[in-house]
TrEMBL record:
FAD-binding PCMH-type domain location: 1-221
PANTHER family documented for this protein: OXIDOREDUCTASE, XANTHINE DEHYDROGENASE SUBUNIT C-RELATED
Assigned keywords, A-Z: Oxidoreductase
Record-linked Gene3D superfamilies: 3.30.465.10, CO dehydrogenase flavoprotein, C-terminal domain, Uridine Diphospho-n-acetylenolpyruvylglucosamine Reductase, domain 2
Name of this chain's protein: FAD binding domain in molybdopterin dehydrogenase
Classification via InterPro entries: CO_DH_flav_C, CO_DH_flav_C_dom_sf, Diverse_Substr_Oxidored, FAD-bd_PCMH, FAD-bd_PCMH-like_sf, FAD-bd_PCMH_sub1, FAD-bd_PCMH_sub2, Mopterin_DH_FAD-bd
Transmembrane segments: none
UniProt lineage: Bacteria, Bacillati, Actinomycetota, Actinomycetes, Pseudonocardiales
């Protein structure tokens, strides 16, 4: 690991000012992903701005939204009674993430900004367009079992690893930012970017911007939500396929639905077309299967991940059947 400078910020404005005025800097909170990347040479910074002392760890609810501070730790959010009551999918996604030790350390803002688990990206000796733009993407013709079947480009097919981001995508969350030009709010659907020809750019953050809070709208949908994560082992493992689903039912009929997926897209993958298949119709095996077919209609699987096309449809069927009581 190469040498870097280190400053402890006292206020969010202080943190942004230091980051904006220091070349090649980044913020650090739990450091559970960042320090591994720096140690392995997959990411390098000249300066770290420690934000752990900022007053951004609160969790509150008002009439409009559940508001989660960016420095709230994963464990705290997962176990918080407000989160469990208002948006169980968030709690379930967090409890399915990482290990208890990591959940104690890692903050919500950092969780949303964690980098892909693509092995080529994390190996500083490999080519990788995301790490070194223009160097190539060996995953497209190489080992791609964990990679995306939706949203990929000729430049990158990596998935985003955050379970929480998938759940927040299903619930139409908003990410609040503070930067050198002031505060702004970005819908999570616009926060994560498709790789296109610039896979090194993953999120809509501007230089020096800090995530301060995430807001989740209070809806009856959010209160009826679930997260299912399929992975290669039962703990401390990233999703092969995951589903965040929320349903609002009147009797057997779906009044409204939200569906987002992990492990299949190059960003947390929302599918409004699959939601539209369900809306206004009885929740049956037939309508669920139709929604699944719509979801994978544009899938472009690769050599090692063709199984995800069927697996994600089965995962969707399981979540919706459990949520909606389909026998
Ligand atoms: Fe790099 Fe993306 Fe290709 Fe992985 S899939 S090697 S992250 S460019």
């Amino acid at each position: 690991m190469r040498n870097f400078g280190y400053t402890v910020a006292r206020t969010p404005e202080d943190a942004v000012r230091i980051a904006a005025g220091t070349r090649n800097s980044t913020f650090v909170s739990g450091g559970t992903d960042l320090l591994n990347l720096m140690r392995d040479g997959a990411q390098a910074h000249d300066h770290l701005v420690d934000i752990n002392r900022l007053d951004l760890a609160g969790i509150a609810v008002d009439r409009q939204a559940l508001r989660i501070g960016a420095l709230a730790r994963m464990r705290h959010v997962a176990e918080h009674p407000l989160v469990r009551r208002e948006s169980p999918v968030l709690s379930e996604a967090l409890l399915a993430s990482a290990s208890p030790q990591v959940r104690n350390m890692a903050a919500i803002g950092g969780n949303l900004l964690q980098r892909t688990r693509c092995g080529y990206f994390r190996d500083a000796g490999s080519a990788c367009n995301k790490r070194v733009p223009g160097s190539g993407c060996p995953a497209i013709t190489g080992y791609n079992r964990g990679h995306a079947i939706l949203g990929g480009s000729d430049h990158c097919i990596a998935t985003h690893p955050s379970d929480l981001a998938v759940a927040l995508t299903a619930l139409d969350a908003t990410v609040h930012l503070l930067g050198p030009d002031g505060a702004r709010a970005v819908p999570i659907a616009d926060f994560y970017l498709l790789p296109g020809s610039t896979p090194e750019r993953e999120v809509a953050l501007r230089p020096g911007e800090l995530i301060t809070r995430v807001d989740v709208p209070r809806t009856s949908l959010a209160a009826q939500s679930r997260y299912l994560k399929l992975r290669d082992r039962a703990t401390f493992e990233f999703a092969v396929v995951s589903v965040a689903a929320a349903l609002q039912m009147t009797g057997r009929t779906v009044r409204d639905a939200r569906l987002a997926f992990g492990g299949i897209g190059t960003r947390p993958w929302r599918d409004t077309r699959a939601e539209a298949v369900l809306r206004g119709r009885p929740l049956t095996e037939t309508t669920i299967a139709e929604a699944g077919r719509v979801l994978v209609r544009d899938a472009k699987p690769h050599n090692d991940n063709r199984f995800k096309v069927e697996l994600v449809q089965r995962a969707l069927a399981r979540v919706l059947s459990e949520l909606g009581g389909v026998r």
